[in-house]
Amino acid sequence: MTPDLDIAVVGAGLAGLAAAHELRRNGHEVSVFEAADAAGGRMRSIRRDGYLIDTGAEQISAQGYRATWQLLRRAGLTPGDVHRIGRPMAVWRGGRPRNGVGEPYAVLTGAGLSPAARPSLARFLSWSSRHRAGLDHDHPEDTPLGTETVAATAGRYHPDLYDHLLQPLPAAFFGWDPERSAAAPLVGLLLAVGPVSAWRVYRGGMDLLARRLADRLDVRYGHRVEEITDHGTHARLTVDGSTVTARAVVLAVPAPAALRLHPDAAPDATGYLAASTYRPMFKVSCALDRPLAPRGGGYALLTPVCEEPVLSCVISDHLKCPDRAPAGRGLLSLLASPRLIPELAGGDDRTAALRMTTAAERYVPGLRDALVATHVHRWLHAMPEITPRSLVLRGAFLRRPARSVEYAGDWVAARPSSEGAARSGALAAARVLARLATRPAPVQETAA
Predict the structure, then answer these.
(1) pLDDT value at 440 more than 70
(2) Which CATH architecture has domain 5-42+207-277+386-435?
(3) Helix, strand, coil % (nearest 5) of the chain?
(4) Could you tell me which of 22, 100, 40 has the C-alpha nearest to residue 297?
(5) N or C: which end of the chain has fewer CB within 10 A?
(6) Nearest-CA neighbor of 200 among 80, 22, 71?
(7) H/E element holding 9?
(8) Which residue blocks in 287-387 are alpha helix, DSSP H?
């Protein structure tokens, strides 16, 4: 039979768009199906009354993001489209923020660690540096840390290293529970992305790259894919109750969604899919009538669970990038503590926003009086929770033969970041190209 489509991609997040872009570069016709009304997924930004609100991802890095920067260049974006944050990250301790988290000089300043814990930080950084070559962030299953959890790794050091660094950092940005999540992906990622001074943000919203890629592709918004079946030479998709066929399909969705859409996948895929659990995230964006922020000048403030039960992080978006709020105004993002998210998710937006903004008054006095509006963002499948169990199964998943249905997503890369999404998209495209017997002539890219 002749399939209806050449290649179908399910999901217009960065992973799906990266896969579609690479396949189109190699001459294929690609149709992207997206249930939402815009591209970006967890990198989507919204515009409200002059405020530019990043609903999910917050930043990228100038290092360790090779696939992302390659996509930026191919999409016709320039260094001028990327803004250097240039502000420190702090951790709350003893009634005030302590700057310097994620910087090499933290060994000297402490960056929120007690003097007794600083030798432990030095030992941790020294060990990580000596084992840098073995801490491959692309293959965390094959590192000296093995399947050890974050909490187990932290147990070898002073308790303060856990309380004010290894707990709050992954909790804020990944929603991780250190008792469940593996240490190797975290340490590998920290080494790859480098110090906070290397971190960047997209001008015009964190969805800038996604929007630019989507503009060059056939993205069909508002179309919900309900089921995928692999028929060997082709795949079949049920989309909004209708059936279409494709030579190949890339499922670029979170692992739980991929398992639901394609439940009859081969055992060498379903094991890792089932083990690739996700953590939810709950975020409240606060539009302010003035540029309030925690004192100290940092753009992000970690609030460890030993100090704060409601929040995990406060991000000053107008300090992260000036275009996030109108002149003379402010925009804050409040991230909920992972322990509280199930409770918040079960309530209404107004109550949740009130609880979080009330808690944030401790760190940003006057916030409630300055509020113009709040916007609540709920992500059931926010970040992959890379557990020891998933690492055990990842090798077999990566070695599986190429089939009509492939996968993309940061869970495939075992990197909870947009770079993980970009790398997984490139990997999925390579597997599709290797499987298809004939390849049309490559399309010549032109800058937009």
Answers:
(1) no
(2) 3-Layer(bba) Sandwich (3.50)
(3) 40, 25, 35
(4) 100
(5) N
(6) 80
(7) strand 5-10
(8) 317-320, 341-345, 349-360, 367-370
| Topology match between the domains 5-42+207-277+386-435 and 83-203+278-384 | yes
Using DSSP bridges, classify how beta strands 330-336 and 278-288 pair: parallel, antiparallel or unpaired: antiparallel
Q: 71 vs 182, 300, 326, CA distance in Å?
A: 29, 27, 29
Q: Which tokens in the block code for residue 73?
A: 């260049």
97 contacts 91 by C-beta, under 8 angstroms: yes
Residues 6+ away with beta carbon under 8 Å from 217: 17, 20, 21, 24, 30, 32
Quick one: what percent of the chain has pLDDT higher than 90? 89
Secondary structure class of 129 (helix, strand, coil): helix
242-251/5-10 β-pairing: parallel
Beta bridge partners of 281: 379
Sequence spans of domains, the chain? 5-42+207-277+386-435, 83-203+278-384
Residue 137 contacts residue 185 (beta carbons within 8 Å): yes
**Rounded Cα gap, residues 308 and 335, in angstroms:** 12
- Residues belonging to the chain: 448
Contacts of 2 (CB under 8 A, 6+ apart): none
Instruction: Specify the amino acid at residue 251.
Output: L
Give 77's Cβ-side CA count (13 Å radius): 22
Per CATH, domain 83-203+278-384 is 3.50.50.60: yes
C-alpha 131 chain-centroid distance: 25
Residue 289 has pLDDT above 80, yes or no: yes
Sorting pLDDT into bands at 50, 70 and 90, what band is 437?
low
Q: Which of 205, 257, 206 is nearest to 33 (CA)?
A: 257
Q: Which long-range contacts (CB under 8 A, 24 or more apart) does 258-262 make?
A: 258/407, 258/409, 261/10, 261/225, 261/226, 261/227, 261/228, 262/227, 262/228, 262/229, 262/230, 262/405
Q: How many other CB atoms are found less than 10 A from the CB of residue 433? A: 17
**Tens of pLDDT, residues 61-86:** 999 999 999 999 999 999 999 999 99
The more confident residue out of 316 and 107 is 316
Q: Assign 138 a pLDDT band (cuts: 50, 70, 90).
A: confident
CB-CB contact of 301 with 168 (8 Å) = no
Cβ neighbours of residue 255 closer than 8 Å, sequence gap 6 or more: 272, 273, 274, 276, 277, 278, 384, 409, 411
